[in-house]
Amino acid sequence: MYTFSNKLKTFSIALVIIGLLGVGYGFMTSHKSFEEVETMLAEEASHHGGGHAEETAHATTEMAHDSHGEEASSTDEAHHADAHKEHVEHVQHQISNRPWSALYVGAFFFFMIALGVLAFYAIQRASQAGWSPVLFRVMEGITAYVLPGGLIVLAIAIASGTIGHYNIFIWMDPDVVAHDKLIQGKAGWLNLPMFAVRGFIFIAGWSLYRHFARKFSLAQDNAEDDKNFKKSFRIAAAFLVFYIYSESIMSWDWIMSVDPHWFSTLFGWYVFASMFVSGITVIALITMYLKSKGLLEFVNDSHLHDLAKFMFAISIFWTYLWFSQFMLIWYSNIPEEVTYFITRINDYKLPFFGMLAMNFIFPLLVLMNSDYKRIPWFIVMAGIVILFGHYLDVFNMIMPATVGDRWFIGVPEIGAICLFAGLFMLVVFTAISKAPLLAKRNPFIKESENFHY
Amino acid sequence: MEASKVIHAIYTDDDVLMSAVKKVKAEKHHIEEVYTPFPVHGLDKAMGLEPTRIAIASFLYGCLGLAVAITMMNFIMIEDWPQNIGGKPSFSYIENMPAFVPIMFELTVFFAAHLMVITFYLRSRMWPFKNAENPDPRTTDDHFLMEIPVHGNEQELETLLQETGAVEINIVDKDTH
Question: Per the UniProt record, which residue ranges are transmembrane (chain A) (predicted)?
Answer without folding.
Answer: 102-123, 144-168, 188-209, 235-255, 267-290, 310-330, 350-368, 375-392, 407-432
